[in-house]
Specification:
Length: 291
């Protein structure tokens, strides 16, 4: 089968099947062999690996994955793409295509079925409107994953990698960095896709931590505090937590916990590190434990 990373081959397939791009699925097909090579390289694939690809489209990246990995399971929501994938992936016996919504797929079960439950790799050119739910869903469900290499909107990649005190730093930065180490592999301009998106893109690799960088008594509470402190960025941490319906503590308890942490009363949430949010959570938990 012809290399779909070359624009002319992609256009031929699209025309042959009279394929219509669906805005609701955020479809933008990659037509740049250099970018494809970078994605494959970043994922560090070997014949020992199982890859789950989210949104294979017409199979452009799937072809590359199938050449390098042992097993590829591609999950595609758009039924109209299934006959195209049958053709473009016909030469590969190590690829399985599942016509399903990734948010409803039990990926742990796929890892069991195709890889004996060993850690898998995830590669995707994600629809930008569901990037965060997909990535966080993978991490939070504790699926055995070694790394996730994804194409996302450039500013989302920058947010995932941002550190404290920067304008891009926020709840997403902390959530991603709690589970994985983010590394931006490449920036990808709009002309690398058909149709051209309106925004720049980036490839980011998220390497799962073997052990989480902080231990915290109540993970769910920590993320509630994080969300509350970034919901109103301009406010102090104390006011942000105090004004949030999600945080079950009095103004006094919050003020006391911030003081115990050795921070000034006027500190803003956006300056706190993950370690400080974990410590703040533990201090508040201790207060709850007292009779």
């Amino acid at each position: 089968m012809a290399n779909l990373g070359i624009a002319k081959n992609t256009i031929e397939i699209i025309q042959k099947y009279e394929f219509a791009f669906q805005k609701k699925f955020g479809q933008n097909f990659l037509i740049d062999t250099h970018v494809l090579d970078k994605i494959i390289q970043a994922a560090g694939l070997t014949k020992e690996d199982m890859v789950v690809e989210i949104g294979p489209g017409i199979g452009t990246m799937t072809q590359y994955l199938a050449e390098r990995a042992g097993t590829v399971v591609a999950v595609e929501i758009d039924t109209n793409l299934i006959p195209i994938l049958k053709e473009t992936l016909g030469d590969y016996d190590n690829v399985t295509v599942i016509n399903e919504d990734i948010l409803k797929v039990d990926i742990r079960k796929l890892a069991e079925q195709y890889h004996g439950g060993r850690p898998i790799k995830v590669v995707a050119n994600l629809p930008y409107y569901i990037t965060t739910p997909i990535i966080m869903g993978l991490f939070e469900s504790e699926v055995p994953i070694e790394n996730i290499t994804v194409m996302v909107q450039k500013e989302v990649a920058e947010r995932m990698q941002a550190g404290p005190g920067t304008k891009d730093y926020g709840a997403l930065s902390l959530a991603v960095q709690y589970y994985a180490e983010p590394y931006i592999v490449a920036n990808v301009p709009p002309n690398c896709f058909i149709p051209r998106p309106n925004v720049g893109s980036a490839v980011i690799r998220l390497t799962r931590h073997q052990e989480k960088p902080v231990s915290v008594k109540d993970e769910k509470l920590m993320f509630r505090l994080i969300r509350a402190s970034f919901n109103q960025r301009r406010k102090t941490l104390q006011n942000g937590l105090n004004n949030s319906g999600e945080v079950p503590f009095s103004k006094e308890e919050i003020a006391s916990a911030i003081e115990k942490l050795g921070l000034p009363a006027a500190v803003r949430g956006e300056t706190l590190t993950l370690e400080q949010f974990a410590a703040l959570t533990d201090i508040l938990c201790e207060g709850q434990d007292k009779p």
